[in-house]
From TrEMBL:
InterPro entries: LysR-type_TF_proteobact-type, LysR_HTH_N, LysR_subst-bd, WH-like_DNA-bd_sf, WH_DNA-bd_sf. Belongs to the LysR transcriptional regulatory family. Residues 9-66 form the HTH lysR-type domain. One of its GO terms (molecular function) is DNA-binding transcription factor activity. It holds the Pfam family HTH_1. This is LysR family glycine cleavage system transcriptional activator. Gene3D superfamilies: Periplasmic binding protein-like II, Winged helix-like DNA-binding domain superfamily/Winged helix DNA-binding domain. Keywords: DNA-binding, Transcription, Transcription regulation. It comes from Microvirga flocculans.
Length: 307
């Protein structure tokens, strides 16, 4: 450990280098860090001597990163972000009860966040930080203790617990429904179909379930459910959306069923976490709580398929 410390640059050297690399200027870095240009230049020299390699090419009154410097800058910038995040989390909860949770945007906004006060009330020693993610990621490279995942139970390097299923319904604006007056499943092919990246085969599965033969389907593609819902409200087409995430739009009749034929999605919702965090007590408490919440929701929710 002692040998490793001798080769570990000080935080002041790293902050000077990160600022100079990001701004491509010793002068600008000095202004940002409230130092002199000479101080920044000396700190960069000390760091280069420690590393045994030049980080910048110095050309008259300009500097630019060497290829080695660019690689080092990316690594140091990410490391400083992690240090900053860890420090902010500790300051928010000095007892260490912080849960960093990656969430799907619409699920997090419309289903999870309104229920979080119950969890926080029952666990006052835990601070929950939320960040949106649309797809699985490497937990080793992200500041996340767990994540909400939709799809198949497939997340390399993670453990998963099933939370719940969803029922999707084909919805559109009232004006589009009036214009097309859909009567049979195949009639929906007359209107534009809106697709979700997270459910790329949803429409194909829906038409197959209705025994409606189709040719390859095309249409606008959305990476977020809320954007697809707004597109349907605006009359851009028919969207196949989870009923429980558009309850307000259905109640207000901003969206209406294009045809009353709901379908269970092939994908499901899971809680995912790295094995290294399995016994982390804020995660243990959250896992137990969200499983209870989803079970209660499944038993009392307004599922179109149960009507």
């Amino acid at each position: 450990m002692g040998t490793a410390r001798r080769f570990l640059p000080s935080m002041s050297l790293l902050r000077a280098f990160e600022a100079a690399a990001r701004l491509q200027s010793f002068t600008a870095a000095a202004a940002e860090l409230n130092l002199t240009q000479g101080a920044i230049s000396r700190q960069i020299r000390v760091l280069e001597e420690l590393l045994g390699s030049n980080l910048f090419l110095r050309e008259r009154q300009t500097v630019r990163l060497t290829s080695a410097g660019e690689t080092y800058a990316r690594e140091i910038r990410e490391a400083l972000k992690r240090i900053s995040s860890a420090t902010l989390s500790f300051r928010a909860n000095p007892k260490g009860g912080t849960l960093n949770l990656a969430i799907l945007p619409t699920f997090g906004t419309r289903w999870l966040t309104p229920r979080l006060p119950r969890f926080l009330s029952a666990n006052p020693g835990i601070t929950v930080n939320l960040a949106t993610r649309l797809a699985p990621f490497d937990f080793n490279l992200e500041q996340a203790d767990a994540a909400i995942h939709f799809g198949a139970p497939d997340w390399p390097g993670a453990e998963l617990e099933l939370l719940m299923s969803e029922t999707v319904v084909p919805v559109c604006s009232p004006s589009l429904l009036d214009a097309y007056k859909f009567e049979r499943p195949g009639d929906l092919l007359k209107a534009p179909l809106l697709h979700l990246v997270s459910r790329p085969d949803a429409w194909e599965h829906w038409f197959e379930a209705q025994d409606a033969l189709t040719e390859p389907l095309h249409g606008m593609l959305f990476d977020q459910l809320a954007t697809a819902a707004q597109a349907a409200i605006s009359g851009l087409g028919i969207a196949l959306l989870p009923a429980f995430l558009i309850e307000d739009e259905l109640k207000r009749r901003d969206l209406v069923p294009a045809i009353d034929l709901p379908m269970r999605s092939a994908g499901q919702y899971y809680l995912a976490w790295p094995s290294s965090r399995s016994s982390y007590w804020p995660l243990v408490e959250f896992r137990q709580w969200i499983v209870r919440e989803t079970q209660e929701f499944a038993s009392t929710g307004d599922d179109p398929l149960s009507r």
